[in-house]
Design brief:
By secondary structure, the chain is mainly α. It has two domains: about 400 residues, Up-down Bundle (Sodium/glucose cotransporter), CATH 1.20.1730; about 70 residues, no CATH class. Helices cover about 80% and strands about 0% of the residues. The termini are far apart.
Length: about 500
């Protein structure tokens, strides 16, 4: 199939205007700031209502991985990809375990980052710094996956007139500009627009592909001929992988630092609960729809390699645009939605990294710094981090799905400190630190051993490296806490 631009010249102009208008929203966020403080910059003054909070949570959680990575996985694996619907649902259950209590604590003690909770709960700078470093590395990887997705989309939209690298660089500049102008307020306002575009875009591509290609009913016969293994349930190793994926997502995604920032930013606890209640339904109208798109793509454009499969959504749109020129203008809406989904995730992760570095690392080195100085440092950090991740996104060859997994392998190791720490007053900092160090070491040993070509499976016995690490993590915490009493200092500070 010849590569033709998905967008006409007019469509490219429209998208360009839309993207650069986000800088205007950044300026509006800057002028709306009430004070030059960390809380105002990173938490929008803790005043988000239900509508804004839901859309920023939705736009942040459903990213380029949803539109590119999930469809690519469905193209390659068929039936087993349906597990993504399950794990996007269980995330909300994970939030409800700790989010309400964490919110109440954040209001009482003015938390800004996840590190603020860790420091207040455990009174250990070593533990706080360890968790902060792991979170920064994981979030950097998260930005990396989404920048790769944005590169694919821009190449497809322009037919290669804008290269993979050029697309990443330009959109990264736009994001870092509006993020540093208005902080969380600008990010949340852009997320509102991007969330609406995402919902509309997902509905559009799902309905269009179903109507033009005949949907799953018609596709089922073709799938039997092209991929007879497509609908087969997984074997025992596959089932273990399903369970492993659910576990790693449950513990990994629920402790996203940028999601925790949004918990802190809610206007009140009622607002927080209502937003999560709405989010429960989103996997059915977002993840499931895109999984079906990937399965349909396997019948229409078979034989793609792993890298090509990650562009299946874009290839289907290209095919449709050539067959039905009348729908070309609608492609602008979808591509805007895809770009919006990615940008909303990247800007949120970038803001979270900036706050972690500034509040939990720089703030420890310069404890007497003013709020305005810390805010300025946070903006500089955003530019430095974005520059480094842009370079990696262009240089590294890994697929989006694998990068997504690597992030969770690491991030889930900090989950016990939140899930257990928020409910168990007797838990000691030494126990948590021991668990994190051992769990992370196990996960890294498996991942690095596999990359180095050693006789180590990336997922031994169908279980993620991060889950092996998490099991060691919890076991170490339990053993250490049993044999070592938590200090009175730990218990009193949190109690």
């Amino acid at each position: 199939m010849d590569t033709q631009p998905l967008l006409s010249t007019g469509g490219m102009i429209y998208m360009g205007l839309y993207l650069f208008s986000l800088i205007g929203i950044g300026l509006a966020g800057r002028f709306a700031r009430k004070e030059n403080t960390m809380a105002d910059f990173y938490l929008a003054g803790r005043g988000m209502g239900v509508f804004v909070l839901f859309l920023t949570l939705y736009a942040t959680q459903y990213s380029g991985n949803t539109l590119i990575g999930f469809t690519g996985r469905a193209y390659r694996e068929g039936f087993t990809a349906l597990v993504t619907v399950t794990f996007m649902t269980v995330i909300i259950g994970a939030y409800l375990i700790f989010a309400p209590k964490l919110y109440r604590l954040s209001k009482e003690h003015n938390y800004i980052t996840v590190g603020d909770f860790i420091q207040h709960r455990f009174q250990s700078t070593t533990l706080t710094v360890t968790i902060t470093v792991i979170a920064i590395i994981a979030l950097g990887n998260y930005i990396l996956t989404n920048l790769k997705a944005i590169g694919f989309i821009i190449v497809a939209a322009t037919g290669g007139q804008v290269s993979f690298a050029q697309g990443i660089i330009v959109l990264s500049l736009i994001m870092v500009i509006y993020e540093t102008l208005g902080g969380m307020r600008s990010v949340a306002w852009t997320d509102m627009i991007q969330g609406v575009l995402l919902l509309f875009g997902v509905f559009f591509i799902f309905i269009t592909i179903q109507s033009e290609y005949g949907g799953l009913v018609k596709m089922s016969e073709q799938i039997k001929n092209i991929r007879p293994d497509f609908w087969q349930p997984p074997d025992w190793e596959g089932k273990r992988l399903w369970l492993s994926t659910i576990i790693i997502v449950f513990f990994g995604i629920s402790v996203y630092p940028h999601a925790i920032q949004r918990i802190y930013a809610a206007r009140d606890e009622k607002t927080l609960r209502r937003s999560f209640q709405i989010m429960i339904f989103m996997p059915l109208v977002t993840t499931l729809f895109m999984i079906i798109v990937g399965i349909v793509g396997a019948t229409q454009i078979p034989g793609l390699d792993r890298q090509g499969s990650e562009q299946i959504t874009l290839l289907l749109l290209n095919d449709l645009a050539q067959k039905i020129p009348a729908i070309s203008w609608l492609l602008v809406i979808f591509l805007s939605a895809a770009v919006a989904a990615i940008m909303s995730t990247v800007d949120s992760a970038l803001l979270a990294i900036s706050s972690l570095v500034t509040q939990d690392l720089y703030g420890k080195v310069k404890p007497g710094s003013s709020q305005s100085h810390l805010t300025w440092v946070g903006k500089i950090v955003s530019w430095i981090i974005m520059a480094g991740v842009v370079w990696l996104a262009i240089a590294l060859p890994q697929t989006i799905w694998r990068l997504f997994e690597i992030k969770l392998e690491l991030l889930c190791q900090i989950a016990p400190s939140i899930f257990l720490g928020i409910h168990l007053k007797s838990l000691s900092a030494k126990s948590i630190l021991t668990g994190i160090l051992l769990g992370t070491s196990v996960a890294l040993f498996i991942m690095i051993g596999n990359w180095a070509g050693l006789a180590i499976d990336a997922k031994p016995w169908g279980v993620h490296a991060g889950v092996w690490g998490l099991m060691v993590n919890f076991a170490a915490i339990g053993a250490c806490n049993y044999f070592m009493n938590g200090t009175t200092r730990n218990q009193t500070a949190f109690g």
